[in-house]
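Q: What structure does this chain adopt?
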Amino acid sequence: MGLSTVHGIVKQNNGCITVYSEVGVGTTFKVYLPRYHGSGKGHRDTDSSAELRLGKGTILIVDDEPAIVRLVKRMAEKLGYRVLEALSPNAAIRMAREHLGAIDLMISDVIMPEMNGKDLMNYIRTIYPNIGVVFMSGYTSNVIAHHNILDDDMHFISKPFTIKELSHTISEAIKQ
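A:
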């Protein structure tokens, strides 16, 4: 996992991270999470397929982390979508230009080398003006909003997310 993803997970769980680094010695990261006081036998959200919003169409997934692309692809395919994958914004642009047929939705990381997700969206919309867009990031939505990368009306999902969260976010983004 990337540091931004770990940071997002820790912050979402009310934890913190300390870092100690010394030249020639190395770096130590310590993750602190609140203690769980429950029995561990409570209800668990299982993301049953009855709760998932299944769909159809083509989704372009863009992230510079291959593991994230593979995971989101598996989830989207389970939801009934055809998936195109790109490991960089430039690859996504090439794919959008060369793809025969519609692309209904782009799911893109917010912060990537070459270009941020918002700039990528603006470029892709010159090819597919009606494409829906979902942004994802290991940073929380508050951090992303603070840096003015995304507008308030954009669809956003924080990594990590469940297939249920993804299915609801996709259906909302395609609905517009």
